[in-house]
Amino acid sequence: MRQSLLGLVCAVSGYGLLAASALAADAEHGRALYQACAACHTDRPDALGPSLKGVVGRRSAALDDFRYSNPMKRAGLTWDEAHLRAYILDPQATVKGNRMPFGGVREAKDADDIVAYLKTLH
Predict the structure, then answer these.
(1) Is residue 6 in a domain?
(2) Residues 24-43: b if buried by 16+ CB within 10 A, e if exposed
(3) Share of residues in the chain with pLDDT > 90 (%)
(4) Tens of pLDDT along 27-51?
(5) Residue 113 belongs to what domain range?
(6) Is residue 16 part of a domain?
(7) 16 band by pLDDT with thresholds 50, 70 and 90
(8) pLDDT > 50? residue 6
């Protein structure tokens, strides 16, 4: 009984922290941070990275006009907030062997802000 109650308290607290994190995300700050990403992630057909317009909710390796790495094709992810955040923080840990030459952002808040900005791209 005691463990069940403790588990419930932890779950509710964790949900509250996740919700607070999402509410605290700053899309404008994310837009400024995204400028480094925009060097590769453009809508140009010769871009080094896939377009990130509409990425939230999209399956990994889903764009027909981009040549994805085999690890990204096999990843089978849906780019929801949690997967995007994890990938932005540590691309190689999230999709081992992907070709993106980026080590990730250092601050979790920055990742949250970039995800908030990505949600505005349509």
Answers:
(1) no
(2) ebbbebbbebbeebeeebbe
(3) 78
(4) 999 999 999 999 999 999 899 999 9
(5) 26-118
(6) no
(7) very low
(8) no
CATH code of the domain containing 98: 1.10.760.10
For residue 3, is it within any domain? no
User: Which pLDDT belongs to residue 24?
Assistant: 79
Residue partners of 75: CB distance under 8 A and separation at least 6: 60, 61, 95, 98
Here the tokens at position 19 are 């919700």
Nearest-angstrom CA–CA distance, 20 and 122: 25
pLDDT at 23: 57
Residue 1 CB neighbours (<10 A) = 5
What is the 3-state secondary structure of the chain?
Answer: CHHHHHHHHHHHHHHHHHHHHHHHCCHHHHHHHHCCHHHCECCCCCCCECCCCCCCCCECCCCCCCCCCHHHHHHCCECCHHHHHHHHHCHHHHCCCCCCCCCCCCCHHHHHHHHHHHCCCC
Give the pLDDT confidence of 83-101 residue by residue, as tens digits. Answer: 999 999 999 999 999 999 9
